[in-house]
């Protein structure tokens, strides 16, 4: 069965990766104009790659390389041998295009089946698949993987939350997948209908496509009464299923490194950093056929580690801190939205629906405006008259304590505005953008 590889001893895994890398380099040297040129520019011969240890001799591939070869310049098979095309989810400019042969679609299904299994899902369960279907890899990726595992799938896609909740209550799925911010929107709708967690059939939620932290996990698990795990991936590499948490372990995700070899590079020197240190995740697709990539610069910030008490032998990665593009520099301090989200966990009563607006002076970001919601129950417990002085003082002090906690944990100045629960815009389906336009 395809799961056994997850338990390979390290030396066997390295042997498998080495064989696959050597084959890949020879394959690219034969079929890819792009990599052939890169190899000759750097004076590299395919024979120079003797094992996975030699990976750092290979060129790094950037998103710009994909853009420059739009649409099919990086494909290593003719269009007639493709089974599917997907694109990245960016909304501006030309999309990044990725192609799959039949073998690639099978590989995609396998890694998603492995991911669903790690998330707790099993053959015979029903998946409520609220990832977007279409050129985004989430919907179809999870769909095929679930079918491979032997699950049935409701291909509901994202949006129309009222209908989503009707069907969750009527069809009683055991598993749901969507973005974490959309899982919160679904939880809100269930709560508005007065449905307690015990009456919801869901047991496992497979959430990803955007950064999220433990505070969001806590809310989702409590409100939906399930285990929520993190699925990571990107279209350029395959889609969802590059890495996945185990539902009984959590805290970090296995990278399915028999297919996707990870490295962490320093963002400036581009040299490998040791295990445990943060940097940019760079991935080599060891087995893809239509559009293999060498050392693809994902732009996602994380670190790798081995978990000796884990069920599987493969390397794990910490949750993504953010995309290098989403990093804000506030008076010289580097900040990712997820760090602000993390700080909310230090204050009881914060609902982690929030938006960040950089405040600029002379083209420099000097502070962040943070709009965030406060829990209704906390307000009710104070028994204030709304808009009384006591209420205003309470909200003022609450905002100050959030500002203080962010300062303590992240080291930046913020202007926190507190909003009533359910008053800020919610995620309507796909990925949420927490950073608003600069002021
Ligand atoms: O978001 C694939 C996916 C679909 C992953 C469904 C998980 C679930 P893209 O649209 O190409 O593909 O966007 C990839 O999204 O480089 C990360 O910046 C971000 N991302 C994806 N999963 C996570 C995650 C899909 N679990 C980009 N945590 C990636 C943090 C994530 N960021």
From TrEMBL:
Give the function comment from the record. Catalyzes the activation of phenylacetic acid (PA) to phenylacetyl-CoA (PA-CoA).
Protein family according to the UniProt entry: Belongs to the phenylacetyl-CoA ligase family.
The organism sits in which domain of life? Bacteria
Assembly, per entry: Monomer.
> Which molecular function GO terms apply here?
nucleotide binding; phenylacetate-CoA ligase activity
Matching entries from Gene3D superfamilies are given as: 3.30.300.30, N-terminal domain of ligase-like
The pathway entry for this protein reads as: Aromatic compound metabolism; phenylacetate degradation
Q: What is its EC number?
A: 6.2.1.30
Which species?
A: Elizabethkingia miricola (Chryseobacterium miricola)
Kindly state which keywords UniProt assigns to this record, in alphabetical order. Ligase, Nucleotide-binding
Q: Tell me which InterPro entries the record gives.
A: Adenylate-forming_Reductase (IPR051414), AMP-bd_C_sf (IPR045851), AMP-dep_Lig_C (IPR028154), AMP-dep_synth/lig_dom (IPR000873), ANL_N_sf (IPR042099), PA_CoA_ligase (IPR011880)
Q: Which Pfam families match?
A: AMP-binding, AMP-binding_C_2
What name has this protein been given in UniProt?
Phenylacetate-coenzyme A ligase
State the reactions this protein catalyses: 2-phenylacetate + ATP + CoA = phenylacetyl-CoA + AMP + diphosphate
């Amino acid at each position: 069965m395809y799961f056994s590889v997850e338990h390979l001893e390290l030396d066997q895994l390295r042997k498998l990766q080495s064989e696959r890398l050597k084959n890949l380099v020879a394959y690219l040297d034969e079929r890819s104009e792009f990599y052939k040129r890169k190899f000759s520019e750097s004076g590299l011969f395919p024979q120079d790659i003797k094992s996975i240890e030699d990976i750092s001799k290979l060129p790094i591939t950037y998103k710009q390389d994909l853009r420059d070869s739009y649409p099919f310049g990086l494909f290593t098979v003719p269009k007639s041998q493709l089974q599917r095309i997907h694109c990245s989810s960016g909304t501006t400019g030309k999309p990044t295009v990725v192609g799959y042969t039949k073998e690639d679609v099978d590989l995609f299904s396998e890694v998603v089946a492995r991911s669903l299994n790690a998330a707790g899902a099993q053959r015979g369960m029903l998946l409520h698949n609220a990832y977007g279907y279409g050129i985004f890899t989430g919907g179809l990726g999870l769909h095929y993987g679930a079918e491979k595992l032997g699950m049935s799938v409701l291909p509901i896609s994202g949006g129309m939350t009222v209908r989503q909740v009707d069907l969750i209550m009527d069809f009683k799925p055991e598993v749901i997948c969507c973005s974490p911010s959309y899982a919160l929107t679904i939880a809100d709708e269930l709560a508005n209908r007065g449905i307690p967690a015990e009456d919801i059939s869901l047991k496992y939620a497979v959430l990803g496509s955007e950064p999220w932290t433990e505070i969001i996990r806590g809310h989702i698990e409590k409100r939906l009464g399930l285990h929520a795990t993190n699925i990571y991936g990107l279209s350029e590499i395959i889609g969802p299923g590059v890495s996945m948490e185990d539902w009984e372990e959590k805290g970090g995700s296995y990278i399915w490194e028999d297919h996707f070899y990870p490295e962490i590079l320093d963002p400036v020197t581009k040299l490998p950093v040791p295990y445990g240190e943060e940097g940019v995740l760079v991935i080599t697709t060891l087995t893809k056929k239509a559009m293999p990539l060498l050392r693809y610069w994902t732009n996602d910030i994380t670190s790798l580690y081995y978990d000796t008490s884990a069920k599987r032998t493969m390397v794990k990665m910490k949750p993504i801190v953010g995309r290098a593009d989403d990093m804000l520099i506030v008076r010289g301090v580097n900040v990712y939205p997820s760090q602000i989200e993390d700080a909310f966990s230090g204050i009881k009563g914060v609902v982690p629906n929030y938006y960040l607006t950089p405040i600029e002076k002379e083209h420099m970001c000097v502070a962040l405006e943070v709009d965030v919601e406060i829990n209704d129950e906390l307000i009710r417990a104070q028994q204030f008259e709304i808009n009384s002085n006591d209420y205003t003082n309470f909200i003022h002090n609450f905002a100050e304590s959030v500002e203080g906690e962010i300062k303590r944990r992240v080291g930046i100045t913020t202007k926190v505005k507190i909003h009533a629960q359910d008053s800020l815009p919610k995620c309507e389906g796909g990925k949420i953008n927490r950073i608003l336009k600069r002021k």
